[in-house]
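Tutorial, part two.
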Amino acid sequence: MKALILEAGYGTRMYPLTENIPKGLLPVGGKPILDYLIRNVGAVRKINKIYVVTNHKFYDTFAEWHSKLRSSKKEIELINDGTLTNETRLGSIRDIQLAITEKGIKDDLMVMGGDNIYDLSFSDFANYFFGKKVGNVVAVHRVTDTERLRRTGVILMDNDSRLTL
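Running the prediction step on this input gives:
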């Protein structure tokens, strides 16, 4: 199993804070957000490699972070999607496609956004996936605040927890 962390956004809604540093490398508690994610992903025994896809604008910043990272139990490889601006970004789906194609990924793939600190165990999530024996599993959380729902992606599930929209 491989992990793919999406870090190719430009964080424009957080300017000026993210004008020169990607969201995933913003410090929280003295460490970049991405460090927490790497530790969580690193705990998944079946994952043998972590890919981090970023854009060209922040590639060197991620390369510097990567060169100083000492806590990962897994091999980490950066992928540059070649974009320079928010207007030319590929978006999540095309960045996933780029990683799969460029790296020839044939394994199961755990994909996550790289600018979040997750309160779920990715080990538990992976175990759930392998226990279900289905093609895909998506982690979601319930949001009941209508205003928050207007600013996020929304899915609907049936009674068997299958995505319907």
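Strands lie at 2-7, 27-28, 31-32, 49-54, 75-80, 109-113. In part three we will examine how such features are distributed along the chain.
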